[in-house]
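Q: Okay, next protein. This is 2-hydroxymuconate tautomerase from Pseudomonas putida. I've checked the sequence twice, so it should be correct. Can you predict the 3D structure?
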Amino acid sequence: MPYVHIRVTDEGVSAEHKRQLIEQTTRMLEQVLGKPPASTFVVIEEVPTDNWGVGGETVTAVRARERG
């Protein structure tokens, strides 16, 4: 019973993106490990950019500087 937890920042992840992630992750586990789709669980968690840090600062700050 595979369980996959995908964490992404909450920057423009559409319902269609999530559908594709769930579908393709499930397919990959079936193809690579022979796991049946009915027993594969995929959870997508969207994390606010204020709560995601990289290089010692929040992604919010990084994005602001990139737009700068």
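A: Here is a summary of the prediction. The chain has one domain: 1-65. DSSP finds two helices and four strands in the chain.
Q: Noted. On to the next one.
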